[in-house]
From TrEMBL:
Coiled-coil ranges per UniProt: none
Cited PROSITE patterns: G_FEOB
Residues annotated as domain FeoB-type G: 41-203
GO annotations of cellular component type: plasma membrane
Biological source species: Actinomycetospora cinnamomea
The name this protein goes by in its record: Ferrous iron transport protein B
GO molecular function: ferrous iron transmembrane transporter activity; GTP binding
Amino acid sequence: MATPLPTPGVGPGAGEACASCALAPDAARLARLGLDPGRYSYVVALAGNPNTGKSTVFNALTGLRQHVGNWAGKTVARAEGGFSYGGVGYRIVDLPGTYSLLSTSADEDVARDVLLFGRPDVTVVVVDATRLERNLPLVLQVRQITGRVVVALNLVDEARRHGITVDVRHLTRELGVPVVATAARRGEGLSDLLAAIEQVATADDPPAPLRLTHHDPELERAVSALAQQVAARFPSLPNTRWVALRLLEGDPGIEAAVRDGTLGDLAAPTTDTAAEAAG
């Protein structure tokens, strides 16, 4: 099982996860988003719709080792914690509950920015097993950004009570990432969830971001052409196709970030990354 670790401002050695944990290479990139990563081996982002039991999963993994504050420059609450699994330290960030990564609120801005620009080692998307159809759009949006995803199929105890059965193996094949059945309130499936997090965090060759192709050739050409323009302007951006899709959909947050240059600031390589590229 997971062992909770100290987090910034909590308990002795605040900000230090464990003696064996090294500062992750993307720490500076995360710091730009207002995160205080401390010392750790991997960063896990916890995403999901409201009322999926996401906070229960977070509490089960971190215990009392949590730090709550606000995201930099925003009134949106931020919760961070830590845990150890297999002798390795993990920092976990509980993202605001959101139905979508399309930027229409401050909560969605935060979730999108952390996933797209923070590049966590693992993103756990918590979904409600009793309302799977409603929850899957967020999973697909996250999969379009990254392949380092674990889906926590939570509230399976409630699903069983209502006679609902989900084919976890089939869902895993369709999504291309691990899907783990959990009932976090009862501790059910948490060991399997931790094993899946470790598997994804340590994978040398994770799945590629999901590429949803459009049957309309004209639309596909527009997406490809705009993605090339975005790549030319922001060469460090990790997923230009996703940004191009958001621009075509009229995402106001992405549009504003392109206009004022914020997109470039967030996507710019850190000093260490730039030095490695130059060397």
